[in-house]
Structure formats: structure tokens, C-alpha cells
Specification:
The chain has 390 residues and is α/β, with parallel strands linked by helices. It contains 15 helices and 16 strands. Helix 2 crosses helix 10 and helix 3 crosses helix 6.
Length: 390
């Protein structure tokens, strides 16, 4: 916003010749809130002789979503030609969804269920129009298209499909990177919610609004104060007035909501927003690697704990006195079965997992399992990661 337009268009760049694309409305509002003197949203478009978007502010960059870009391209196929620079932020998300035929979806996304396919087919694929436009713009000698993403691997489906050539330009070898003191894998979300640290702030990402509502109810039953936000344009699940205020506050102030222990978000808030409040815990209830990186990145500082979904993982709270009662002592067959029941993680058939699965999780957490023979029986001794290091 402050550098790229001038490097490409010159020191006297006319900012109305710059188009800034972003994946979500939250991201669009966040960009404008951060740069009100250089950026502007265009919600209500101007018609002038059949050419929409005439009358831009010459001192401010045009900021719209990919979907809105697709809408404008449908109305005027030459719309992109009025720009000299197109910045495509959160570039990895433009491809959603690429296909608009059942066969194309099944070929590109074999993991999708029939229901997933039907859901995609029901959507208006404005992003597809945006992709076509950027493909054409990238081949126009008068236009520079720059995509920005922390997870560019997600873009492969697009440029392989369109047979486009890309130039990768890493920003720097020493690019700023936020870390977490501990990464914790979990398989059962209900056990995770019960283990969330009390009195600490947690950002909680989930893919679907139905999940957010259910997890918020569970958290509140435990006495945690919660807030949840998603797209302001969702007609099936409209935001309440309080949710709208919270969403606006996050976008405009970059702060975690006050008097809130757990903030739950989905993909509509999972990329472009930034939170600078100290938040020690982040939960990403998704196995998608790109989503894990992007959602964690909403907290713009180092964190203490990052909880990542891994379906076969077992979440073990080593501070729990009941768990600690099974550490550093010989465990019989009966003890190990009781330990597995205490952890309480179940598989897809809802059968309790046994000692073998628990043992794998203990070792993955850094525990050491020693065997000891007492009389004619073998026992296992679990040494916790902290005590083993000591």
C-alpha cells in the first residue's frame, strides 16, 4: 500500500490506477481502516455511459473483493484495463471455487462428498470470473499483476489449470515470523474445549458456522465468556447487532474483544484481519495446512500454545492431577486401560481407544515409556516430558 504502487507506477503514481483485491469483506474493511488516506471501498458503484466504476478518487487505491471483481468483469469485460497495477492479496484464496461443472469439481477435488459438490454448484462462481480476468490482465503489457500470499502453494490449482507462468519473488530471507512456545495436537474437540486454559484469551478457528455455534455453547457451559463472528453477508446465519459491533471493532482497532475469553471465527475472518492484543492461545480446528498457517497468523505476535487438529491425536493435560497419578510409577494392564479411559478419546466407531494408541500419543508429546518387570508381570512407566528433560 505504501511502497509497491510507487515502485511500479513511479513516484507520481495516480492511486486510482491501482486495484487492490482481497478475499473477504473483513479484509477489505481492514485494509481501508488501516489506510484511510490511501484506500477506499466502493460498495455502491457509479454508472457512467455504461462503464461502471467511473469517478474514482485520484488519491486513493480502489479496494474490492475477488468476488466483487468478478461481478464487475461480468458487467464490463474490459474493466481491468483501466488499472496499471493489480495487487492480489491473500492470493491463495482466489481459486475458491475454480470449477463450475460437476465433472471438473470431481476431477480437481476427489475428496469432496456429493454434498460438497452440490454446495459448490449452487454458488455463483464470481471468483472464477476474477481468475479469468487476472489471467488476461497478466498477459497485458500495460498491467502488472502482483499476488501476495504467505501460503502460495494453494495457488497451484489455478496456474496449472490456466497454464500460466509465475515469477516467485520471496520478500526476504529473514522475513518476520511469529512463533509459538508449544504446538499441541488434538483429535477430540470436546476434550480440547475442556482443557482450554481458564483466565486466558483464546482465538478459536472453525470452518463452519454450525461448528462455531456448538463450540461456543460448550465453552459457555464451562463458564468461558465467548464472542463469535463470521461474514456480515451471510443471509442464512445473519449476525446479531452485537456481533456486528464486535466484528467492526476487530477490523477497525485490531484488538481482541474486551471481556472475552474465547473468540470464535471462520474463514471469512481467517485471513486478512490482524489482532495485536496479547493472546496466548490459538486453536485451529482444521487439518488444512494453509488454513492452519493463516488462522494462526491473525494473532500478530508470538503465542504460548497452538492447538492443531489431527484426527488421530490424543490431547493430554499433564497438569491434571488425575493424569499425573499415572506418571512415574509402574502401570499394570488394568492401570493402562484406566489411563486410556481417563483421556477419553474415541475413534470414529465411538469405541474407546486403548493403551497402544495412548502410548503413541505420549511418545509424540515427548514422554519416555520405560518397561519394568516385577515378579512374573511386565509394567510400563510413563515419564513426562518435563521430568525427562530434568
Amino acid at each position: 500500500m505504501n511502497k509497491l504502487p510507487y515502485e511500479i507506477l513511479g513516484t507520481a503514481a495516480k492511486l486510482e490506477n491501482v486495484l487492490y483485491l482481497i478475499d473477504t469483506c473483513a479484509g477489505r474493511h481492514s485494509i481501508v481502516a488501516k489506510h484511510p488516506d490511501k484506500a477506499r471501498c466502493y460498495d455502491k458503484l457509479i454508472e457512467n455511459g455504461g462503464f461502471r466504476f467511473d469517478g474514482f478518487d485520484p488519491h486513493r487505491i480502489v479496494v474490492i473483493t475477488y468476488a466483487k471483481f468478478g461481478v464487475e468483469m461480468l458487467k464490463n469485460p474490459r474493466f481491468f484495463e483501466r488499472f496499471g497495477l493489480i495487487i492480489a492479496d491473500e492470493f491463495h484464496n482466489i481459486y475458491w471455487p475454480i470449477p463450475y461443472t460437476r465433472s471438473r469439481i470431481k476431477a480437481d477435488f476427489p475428496e469432496f462428498s456429493s454434498r460438497d459438490v452440490e454446495n459448490l454448484l449452487r454458488q455463483k462462481c464470481y471468483n472464477l470470473c476474477a481468475m479469468e480476468a487476472l489471467s488476461a490482465a497478466s498477459e497485458n503489457p500495460n498491467i502488472m499483476v502482483v499476488g501476495i500470499s504467505a501460503t502460495p502453494e494453494e495457488s497451484k490449482k489455478w496456474y496449472e489449470w490456466k497454464n500460466l507462468s509465475f515469477n516467485y519473488l520471496p520478500i526476504a530471507d529473514n522475513i518476520k515470523h511469529y512463533t509459538e512456545s508449544k504446538k499441541i495436537l488434538y483429535g477430540d474437540v470436546h476434550s480440547l474445549i475442556n482443557a482450554l486454559p481458564k483466565g486466558e484469551k483464546t482465538l478459536f478457528y472453525a470452518d463452519h458456522i454450525g461448528q462455531i455455534k456448538n463450540y461456543q455453547m460448550e465453552c459457555e457451559l464451562l463458564g468461558l465468556k465467548c464472542a463469535s463472528v463470521w461474514s456480515a453477508n451471510n443471509e442464512k446465519h445473519p449476525l446479531s447487532e452485537q456481533q456486528r459491533l464486535i466484528r467492526q471493532q476487530i477490523i477497525e482497532t485490531n484488538e481482541f474483544p474486551k471481556d472475552t475469553d474465547v473468540l470464535l471465527i471462520n474463514k471469512s475472518m481467517g485471513t486478512a484481519i490482524n489482532i495485536y492484543t496479547k493472546v496466548p492461545n490459538v486453536v485451529v480446528h482444521s487439518t488444512n495446512k494453509s488454513t492452519q498457517i493463516q488462522a494462526r497468523g491473525r494473532i500478530r505476535q508470538d503465542i504460548e500454545k497452538l492447538y492443531i487438529l489431527q484426527p488421530d491425536a490424543t490431547l493430554i493435560d499433564y497438569t491434571d492431577e488425575n493424569v499425573r497419578s499415572y506418571l512415574n510409577r509402574p502401570l499394570s494392564v488394568e492401570d493402562k486401560a484406566a489411563f486410556a479411559r481417563l483421556v477419553g478419546v474415541k475413534d470414529k466407531q465411538t469405541h474407546n481407544r486403548g493403551w497402544t494408541t495412548l502410548k503413541r500419543s505420549l511418545i509424540a508429546d515427548g514422554c519416555v515409556i520405560k518397561q519394568k518387570r516385577i515378579g512374573s508381570k511386565n509394567y510400563d512407566i510413563v515419564i513426562s516430558p518435563e521430568e525427562y528433560r530434568e
